[in-house]
Amino acid sequence: MTNVKSSLCICLPIGGAIIRSKRDHRSQELLPRKREPVYFDHRFRRRFSSENPEDGNIELEMFAAQAYEAARPKRADEAQMLVKEMCDMEVVPDIVTYNTLMDDFCKMGRIQDAQNLFPQMQACGQLPNVQTYNILMDGLCKNQELPMALKLFQEMVDNKLDPNMVSYNILIEGLFIGGKVEYARDIFSGLSSKGLLPNVRTYNIMISGFCSSGLTTEAEMLLQEMKDKGCSPDGCIYNTIIRGFLQQQ
Question: Angle at Cα 224 formed by Cα 221 and Cα 222, nearest 5°?
């Protein structure tokens, strides 16, 4: 009777993700022809190795950990190369790895590099989430690319992802930056119909936008509305309104 050696399967659950290494010595006919991708969680920070006289040496390099550490300002190119290498080896970076790299590209003003990660991550089997869209929308708005940010927002909705309060804060701020005060006001007014409550950040954006547009009366009214709704203003909001009044003198 022919002995069939059992497969070696190592599963490491980390933060809801599973890192899996599999080597099977069964006949080729019993094995799937397509290699399954390996998923790594960005929080995994060590190197795993297993030695067995029969199975040989199995060593898993934690590319995700290297990419996560490299995805810092001035090292984003190194991180991008690591992520590409991971995909080439069918090792799928997790969503946090992509989001971290995209965020650093945006902070450096390299919006095109951040946008290029969208098709790359999907080709590797990782779909963008709400935070991914938020990161790129924020980068676009801060780099005076409001039309592209609005297009991305609509794409997020079309993909059945529900924008959160962070998404709307980014969008409202981008509209003020782009001089679209009426659109910003309309979106703010429609938040309750979407089941969302403005937070301190939302009011800060609105009040700052009104003050920058010379609408200090509206800013003052919004401050009172904020208090009436039980949202406590912070020092930043008061400073914004004071600056707004001073600029009008």
Answer: 40
